[in-house]
Amino acid sequence: MDGDPTYPSIDALPERPTILNFVVPPDQTLKVLRDAVRLGYHNVWIQPGAESPEVMAFVQEHGFNYLANACIMVRSRIRSEA
C-alpha cells in the first residue's frame, strides 16, 4: 500500500512488532485482536473508527496494554511540537 508491503495476517509478518496499530473497521479490529491473543501480543493502538464497544470490552477482558480514541497522526504532531 503506497509502496509499503502488506501481509494477509499478523501470522505472516516477517518481524514481530512491539505494538499493533489498528486503522480498520471494528469488525476487522476484533478479528486481528483474536489472533493477537493467540500469538501473545500485548500492546495495541486502536485508532478512531477502529474501536467499538465490543473492541474495547475485548481489549480490557484480555489484558491488553492499549491506547484508544487517539489519532497517531495528531499525537505524533503534538509530540514533535513539544
Q: What is the structure about, briefly put?
A:
The protein is of the alpha/beta class and about 80 residues long. Helix content is about 40%, strand content about 15%.
List the helices and strands and how they pair.
Elements: E1 20-22, H1 26-39, E2 43-46, H2 53-61, E3 65-68, H3 72-81
Describe it.
- The protein is α/β, with parallel strands linked by helices and 82 residues long.
- It has a single domain (10-81), classed as Rossmann fold.
- It contains 3 helices and 3 strands; from the N terminus they run βαβαβα.
- It has a 3-stranded parallel beta sheet with strand order 1-2-3, with helices on one face.
- α1 packs parallel to α2.
Q: Tally the helices: what do you get?
A: 3
CATH topology: the name is Rossmann fold
Q: Report the CATH superfamily.
A: NAD(P)-binding Rossmann-like Domain
**Total beta strand runs:** 3
The CATH class is Alpha Beta
Uncertain segments of ≥5 residues (pLDDT<50)? Answer: none
Assembly context of the chains: single chain
* Structural class determined from secondary elements: alpha/beta
Shape: globular
**What is the spatial order of strands in the main beta sheet?**
1-2-3
Helix-strand pattern: EHEHEH
CATH architecture assignment: 3-Layer(aba) Sandwich
How big is the Rg? 13 Å
β-sheet strand percentage: 5-15%
Q: How many angstroms does the end-to-end distance come to?
A: 31 Å
Largest sheet: number of strands, sense, barrel closure: 3 strands, parallel
Helix fraction bin: 40-55%
Total number of distinct structural domains: 1
Q: Report mean pLDDT, rounded to a whole number.
A: 90
